[in-house]
Amino acid sequence: MTGYAVVVEGAEGSYSAYVPDLPGCVAAAETRDELHALIRQAIGMHVESLRHHGEPVPEPAAVDAEVVQPA
After folding, report:
1. Rounded-to-integer distance, Cα 15 and Cα 27, Å
2. 1 pLDDT higher than 80
3. 7 beta partners
4. 10 pLDDT band (50/70/90 cuts)?
5. Residue 63 burial (CB < 10 Å; 0-12/13-18/19+)?
6. What pLDDT sits at residue 71?
7. What is the pLDDT of residues 32-59, one digit of tens each?
């Protein structure tokens, strides 16, 4: 599996991220390091939930952003 592209927004002290290929998969944190850990966890949980509910898991398709592997 290749990684999902993650869009990171914010400035010092407040960051958020979302995954264009996984609508609803988001995270927010005070630091970029914390944000990276949280969005990895969010991607893993999102994919797990899709599988659990028998829904298709989208292949990574977005480009030109930070790429993060699920935990």
Report:
1. 8
2. no
3. 18
4. confident
5. exposed
6. 62
7. 999 999 999 999 999 999 999 999 999 9
- Angstrom distance (rounded) from CA 62 to CA 32: 21
Phi, psi of 43, deg, nearest 5? -60, -45
pLDDT score at 57: 95
Question: 31's torsion region: left (phi>0), alpha (psi -120 to 50) or beta?
Answer: beta
Question: Using CA atoms, how far apart are residues 57 and 71, in angstroms rounded to an integer?
Answer: 16
Q: What is the DSSP string of the chain?
A: -PPEEEEEEEETTEEEEE-TTSTT-EEEESSHHHHHHHHHHHHHHHHHHHHHTT---PPP---SSEEE---
CA distance 3 to 11: 24
